[in-house]
Amino acid sequence: MLLDPCLASEVPEASSQRGLNGSTASLGVLMGHCFRRSSGRGWRLRQRSMALWPNWVSQLDHPSSPLSLQTPLVQLAASAEEAERMRQLAQARRERGLQFLEEPALPSAPTPWPRTGHGALLSEQDGRVDPLGLLRALRRAFKAQGGTLRSTSARRLERSSAGSNGRWRVVTSAGDSLRVDAVVICSALGSEALLEPLGHPRPMEAVLGQVLELKRQDSQASWEHWPAVLTCGGINLIPHGERQLWLGATVEPGSEANPSLLPAMQTLNNLAPQWLHDTERVGQWHGLRARPQGRPAPLLEQLEPGLILASGHYRNGVLLAPASAEWVSQQIDGSILTAP
Ligand SMILES: Cc1cc2nc3c(=O)[nH]c(=O)nc-3n(C[C@H](O)[C@H](O)[C@H](O)COP(=O)(O)OP(=O)(O)OC[C@H]3O[C@@H](n4cnc5c(N)ncnc54)[C@H](O)[C@@H]3O)c2cc1C
After folding, report:
1. Can you give the residue ranges of every domain in the chain?
2. What ligand 1 atom has the least distance to the C-alpha of 285?
């Protein structure tokens, strides 16, 4: 059973309808293979997710909730030093589809890419997945597997008395009291309030992200020779439709959007080609990322038997969804098998 008040409504169709949670606001960029580090938990989770994504997509793709992986991803080098790091990374990960493109080898697209003058890293297997499509597909698959969706929130969790069925009692805002063997807390900024009373403080802070939807004005607009995602100075440009693109996202501690950050984002900190200056702003939205305080993201912990925390994914919750879900499934198997 999945409890979430946002299940009261359908997954939004358009950006303008997106609310303030992480997933509906996300750009869905998957930067796994081009992750700079080559060791540690962050790298292992990314590697695992990228290995699982193709299978996830083929299992979740359905006529009523189509899903695809959009590739490739290109990251422009910001400096000669970064270009050198990218060259080395490309050499080490050639078999993962990484290739360094020297500046003269960058394609001359009808809609010119922004240029830094230092070349770019091409990652054939990185890219993006549509987060709204993913949410729709997950809801459909969950129901198809017999899962129940309840549009209510968990108000508090209680340990059940010994000997009774189910270790945990979930008290919902609708007034129900549900007995369960295992609870998976994946409620981002709503997780802390459930955990604190149980003696598991896991503070998280909100980090807001703003996204712009822009429309090209010229009638000759074409995205030929564009990757699914082009990243310039940490800002993602994601073409969609014939003339539109998403641009984002800002990284702003707190939950108040600061409009003064948008011009710098739209001009790519002075690297924007003229056509980008000339685009019309047709939409914008923002959402909140949950960043764990004092602990690395994400939080994947079995806190007590049957009390599983899988949250605080900060900037990579879509990318890491398959690896996190796999980790959760391993914990649930274990916790049920060890039940008294
Ligand atoms: C603008 C923006 C761009 C991003 N771009 C990317 C990207 O390109 N790639 C990437 O990998 N990640 C990206 N992220 C981050 C990513 O979106 C998040 O890490 C991810 O969506 C987090 O998913 P989540 O399910 O943990 O949290 P959320 O999507 O925030 O969902 C938490 C849910 O918990 C529910 N909830 C809260 N409290 C309770 C309760 N008590 N009971 C029941 N339900 C509760 C809420 O209603 C909510 O639906 C981006 C985020 C933002 C804001």
Report:
1. 146-203+295-337
2. 1
In contact, 130 and 25? CB cutoff 8 Å: no
Mean pLDDT of the chain: 93
Interstrand relation of 177-180 and 120-123 (parallel, antiparallel or unpaired): unpaired
Task: Find the mean pLDDT for residues 312-321.
Answer: 98
The answer to whether residues 185 and 298 touch, using CB atoms and an 8 Å cutoff, is no
- Centroid of ligand 1 to alpha carbon of 25 (angstroms): 8
Q: Are 189 and 290 in contact (CB under 8 A)?
A: yes
Q: Is the pLDDT of residue 14 over 80?
A: no
Looking at the domain 146-203+295-337, which fold is it? FAD/NAD(P)-binding domain (3.50.50)
What does the pLDDT look like over 84-140, one tens digit per residue? 999 999 999 999 999 999 999 999 999 999 999 999 999 999 999 999 999 999 999
Which pLDDT tens digit goes with each residue over 132-173?
999 999 999 999 999 999 999 999 999 987 666 788 999 999
Q: Which of 21, 136, 150, 250 to mutate to test the pocket of ligand 1 (most atoms within 8 A of CB)?
A: 21
**Which residues contact ligand 1 via a Cβ below 6 A?**
3-6, 21-23, 25-29, 153-154, 186-188, 190, 194, 209, 211, 248-249, 287-289, 311, 313-319
For residue 201, the Cα-to-chain-centroid distance in whole angstroms is 24
The answer to whether 67 and 57 have CB atoms below 8 angstroms apart is yes
Q: How far is CA 150 from CA 13, 105, 139, 143, 176, in A?
A: 21, 53, 11, 11, 11
**pLDDT exceeds 60 at position 295:** yes
